[in-house]
Amino acid sequence: MPNLLEVRDLSKRFTSAGGPFRKARSMHAVNGVSFDLPEGRVIGVVGESGCGKSTLARLILRLIEPSGGAVNFDGDNLLAKSPSQMRKLRARMQMVFQDPYSAIDPRYTLTRAVSEPFEVQNVTPKKPMAEEVADLLEMVGLNPGLAASYPHQISGGQKQRVGIARALALRPSLLVLDEPTASLDVSVQAQIIGLLEDLRTDLGLTYLFISHDLSLVKYFCDEILVMYLGRVVEALPETAAPARHPYTRTLMESTFEPDPKKRRLIAPLEGEVPSPFDLPPGCAFADRCPNASALCRTETPVLSTETGHAVACHHPI
Amino acid sequence: MLSVRDLGVAFGAVQPLSGVSFAVGKGETLGIVGESGSGKSLTAMSVMGLLPLSGGRITGGKVEFDGQDLTKLSERAYRKLRGGRIGLITQNPMTSLDPLKKIGPQVDDVAKLHMGLSEQAARARTEEILGTLRIPEPALICERYPHQMSGGMKQRIVIAMALAADPDVLIADEPTTALDVTVQAQIIRLLDDLVKERDLALVLITHDMSVVAQTCDKVVVMYAGRAVEHGPVETIFDRPRHPYTQALIACIPRGLDEATRLTGIEGTVPTVVNYPSGCPFHPRCPRAEAICATDPPGFSVEGDSAAACHFAEVADAQPA
Description:
The complex is a heterodimer of chains A (317) and B (320).
Chain A: E1 3-16, E2 25-38, E3 42-46, H1 53-60, E4 68-73, E5 76-77, H2 83-90, E6 93-96, H3 100-103, H4 110-121, H5 129-139, H6 156-168, E7 174-178, H7 186-203, E8 206-211, H8 214-220, E9 223-228, E10 231-236, H9 246-253, E11 310-311
Parallel strand pairs in A: 3-8, 3-9, 6-7, 7-8
Antiparallel strand pairs in A: 1-2, 1-4, 4-5, 9-10, 10-11
Chain B: E1 2-11, E2 14-24, E3 28-33, H1 40-47, E4 57-65, E5 68-69, H2 75-81, E6 86-89, H3 93-96, H4 103-115, H5 119-132, H6 138-142, H7 151-163, E7 169-173, H8 181-198, E8 201-206, H9 209-215, E9 218-223, E10 226-232, H10 233-238, H11 243-250, H12 290-294, E11 299-302, E12 305-308
Parallel strand pairs in B: 3-8, 3-9, 6-7, 7-8
Antiparallel strand pairs in B: 1-2, 1-4, 4-5, 9-10, 10-12, 11-12
């Protein structure tokens, strides 16, 4: 399959303004991230809070302007596009947000929420709008009878379905899913994941799935990128590939199985996550890593991609 | 150590909790698990005697701690127990700490109040406890304010406060939900060690079946304010007999077992004002029949576990 999305060396540096009592500081929220997303595949980006995964999602859609790098979507270099060209392209690349409670205007009926993309993009649907909305609601497993309801009248899981219906309104080819189930109960999470699986097959969608939950990513995705403090530290070409980066290993050992026979021995983890404003030289994980050597504290390991299973570590497992 | 029997709670005319029973002994971890709105936190509040704060009252049942019935305790006597012999760890460490007060004095207060220690003795104790929680340089941490610390570190401080008066029972209400996975694993390990080293009775409230599988000895599954199944953790995961328990387990993605498709539970948790008649789970239950809508099921006991389902007897071994 051809690549739908190609991300090259994408970076974002945020700077906080200085003031009378503090110096201006800057941090690399996303640092040199590269990957290819072939059509029809699902890549998961996993990492803990502050690792830059949500920033990465926003950079790809240019909701935030990157500081450097390139994003190619279906052959178009997004960073060279004007705002109006970008707006047109966004019809084909949509995002589903983490918090369905704040992603939908509380004063909009579901009909208005789901038909808004047509307005914004100035697209006339093929069918009458009411039918189009009913189809979309049905597609995400909602009763079209809810069309006149307001967000406060429906549950969190139903709101997230509306979020998905809205993202699908203009029939995009790429969906960026930013922790779409993080604020939902497990039973509802499983429903939403099932829906996303079905939509992927039925509509031939390509997903970039952002999550902090490694077991969910392993279940749902084809490939996994593991991020730590702005960098991709490991790219697993398939979910069953054994972890080679000590951080990925730590993540896996911190994820429990729903089976008392598979209890894990949790090794105490030394040290704290360093401040992104004040990263130590060398590997950012060195202070918490059991395998760290002197080299790790001086030289930043690069992501080596020779074997197809890329890992940024001086002493991979 | 702590046993709850047939607990019922009402707020005015609504009855969000009824017939909840469990017991936890020294050196034992009991998990209370269910979706949001199932009454887990309310159970914790009832045990802590905090219901009057929000206008609720206990309508039936017993909460026995060390031989005395807590439901008959005066507020004055309760105050001695709370934070003293029964410690509480809440979900959000960000809101359990006073943002304007340094860490040291916040933890000191517990030992001063409950153990009558002097300023110096309390501080010595605080530093000792922080040390046992693997917090580096306790003396330095005592001088910090909450905003200067990470979420995981704050949760450790909240645990330190709960431990300061050397409790017999610890109630942890979603202690790791707001934390990153690696931090969650560390806190779980810490709680496990505490239960073993101090012979604590731990009640762990969570919505996460994989946390239950990892740490608990026994488990109570709650739905719509009722206990629907309880028993030893191995039995419950090996052979869940209540359809709700089976469904909860099937919701959790399992590592690499791709053959099993994740199945959600249709519908949503009912709210207090519209608890269904009969079995509260029947509108969402794949096995429901006519009787489920009319008759509340009793517990079907098998060995040391029990499930409140009309069809628990015929439940197939269905380890999701």
